[in-house]
Backbone:
């Protein structure tokens, strides 16, 4: 591709490098919204080329998608505002937030205690035989409290499935209400961390997720001023 001036060539290179380095999530949204790709197909989007008339974005399987710029830009100085406007339009069209979740925050303090307690409860009640003599749980702990062991044995069939249903519901709600909204790709490593954490502990995961979003929102607001 030829350019009228060396400044144009430098601007072209700088924009492509910047978009691929700092705005890969925007490129993914461009493919989802403008090229109508699924989030799975749009993953690892990369800006391969750019003209004043269009963007050429490639995906992990090397497919190329040309997205027209309408109207075409008159100069490279318009690129930043145009990319921001296109991303805002894509966010609205996809029903997404401009805050992308990029980290998993582990439970700490009281929430860590809740996480461990919930995990132990799920594992303990996963099998009724855990409350009978001969099991590791009974031999290590419950043999000292036989009445409690018998109580747990009696309620296990009535407790397990409602608890699993509630926890599965919480994990699904995390995916629907937060992970998709904040651009976490389904079945990615980060997605699994948040979903499994929510399945185990429930409300604690929502609290931490919302805290990360709030911190990132405040950081972006400060950066504007």
Residues:
């Amino acid at each position: 591709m030829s350019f009228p001036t060396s400044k144009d060539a430098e601007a072209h290179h700088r924009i492509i490098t910047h978009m691929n380095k700092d705005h890969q999530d925007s490129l993914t949204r461009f493919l989802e919204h403008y090229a109508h790709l699924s989030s799975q197909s749009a993953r690892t989007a990369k800006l391969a080329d750019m003209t004043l008339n269009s963007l050429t974005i490639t995906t992990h399987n090397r497919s190329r998608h040309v997205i027209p710029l309408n109207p075409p830009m008159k100069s490279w100085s318009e690129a930043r505002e145009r990319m921001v406007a296109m991303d805002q339009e894509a966010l609205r069209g996809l029903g997404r937030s401009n805050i992308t979740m990029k980290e998993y925050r582990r439970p700490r303090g009281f929430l860590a205690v809740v996480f461990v307690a919930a995990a132990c409860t799920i594992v303990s009640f996963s099998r009724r035989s855990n409350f009978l003599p001969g099991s590791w749980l009974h031999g290590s702990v419950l043999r000292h409290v036989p009445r409690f062991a018998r109580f747990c044995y009696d309620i296990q069939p009535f407790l397990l499935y409602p608890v699993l249903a509630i926890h599965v519901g919480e994990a699904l709600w995390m995916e629907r209400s937060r992970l998709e909204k904040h651009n976490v790709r389904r079945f990615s490593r980060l997605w699994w961390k948040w979903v499994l954490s929510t399945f185990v502990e429930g409300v604690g995961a929502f609290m931490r997720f919302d805290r990360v979003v709030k911190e990132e929102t405040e950081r972006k607001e400060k950066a504007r001023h």
Observations:
- The two ends are 38 Å apart (CA to CA).
- DSSP finds eight helices and three strands in the chain.
- The mean pLDDT is 95.
- Residues 146-179 form the longest helix (34 residues).
